[in-house]
Amino acid sequence: MTYCVGMVLDAGLVLMSDTRTNSGVDNISVFRKMFTWQVPGERIISVMTAGNLATTQAVISRLEERSKAPEERQNSLLELPTMFQVAVEIGRLLREIVTETQSDNGERGQGRFTASIILAGQIRGMEPRLFMIYPEGNFIEASFDTPFFQIGETKYGRPILIRGYERSMSFEDAVKLLMVSFDSTLKANLSVGMPLDLMVIERDAFVPLHERRIEHNDPYFSAISDKWGEALRAAFHSLPDYTLGG
User: Fold this and answer.
1) Cα(110)–Cα(42) distance, rounded to whole angstroms?
2) Does residue 245 lie in a domain region?
3) Which domain holds residue 9?
4) What torsion, rounded to 10 degrees, do the Cα atoms 115, 34, 83, 76 define?
5) CB 199, CB 37: distance < 8 Å
6) Which of 15, 65, 221, 246 has the fewest Cβ atoms within 10 angstroms?
7) What is the pLDDT of residue 225?
């Protein structure tokens, strides 16, 4: 399983993903799920992936090839003129790979090779944009009503985001909020695991403002986890008591 979140702020974009993949409790591996392409001063594009690992790796490999092969430059993420067209091309590629894989595997492949992608980035002269791309190749864009997207194991971390998110919040507060969301997910589902990858993209910068991998023993993440647990217990005990009978 996977957990990835992309978030739009007034100041830019914040992305976080886990790195765990598993085929049962005895077959757990670490694979990167966040990938970035950039032309400093002109564009930055990042994707996060969830779903069948072979499918997502095929998508990323083809995108990488297009950015290097001269004959593929017209479909490269580094050449497409808008983020909308980037979303269209990634959606088309994802649908193509899912369809090919399912056809090769017949009925056994139906539903087994699907994947979802969060696309985030900015091209010079345009707004930072965030998209959710589905296995069928269609997509939706983040808005004021839907300012963040999640893929993978979404249900445990979503209540934290809904209650804590503000579009005007600082990058620092956004990272803190994402860490609480991921901590809640990690505590509830063993199929989501560390290390975590974090990227902060400032509006009109076109290079990552902040990028790091959060390991198992990261002192800040550990402090967030401990303090959040203590705060929840304190909040629970501060609630009005319930009286049995009478």
Assistant:
1) 40
2) no
3) 3-238
4) -90
5) no
6) 246
7) 95
* Residue 244 maps to a domain: no
- Each residue of 98-125: b (16+ CB within 10 Å) or e? beebbeeeeeebeeebbbbbbbbbbbee
- Quick check: helix, strand or coil at residue 40? coil
Query: Residue 131 and residue 15: Cα distance in Å, rounded?
Result: 12
Q: Is residue 246 part of a domain?
A: no
Q: Which of 206, 199, 195 is nearest to 14 (CA)?
A: 199
Instruction: Report the alpha-carbon distance of residue 136 to residue 152 in Å, rounded.
Output: 16
Work out how many domains the chain is built from and give that number: 1
Q: What is the pLDDT of residues 163-181, one digit of tens each?
A: 999 999 999 999 999 999 9
- The answer as to whether 170 is a domain residue is yes
Residue with tokens 């864009």: 141
Q: What number is the average pLDDT over the span 147-153?
A: 95
Report the distance separating Cα 32 and Cα 90, nearest Å: 18
Taking alpha carbons only, the member of 33, 34, 134, 121 closest to residue 84 is 121
CATH of the domain at 16: 3.60.20.10
DSSP state of 73: G
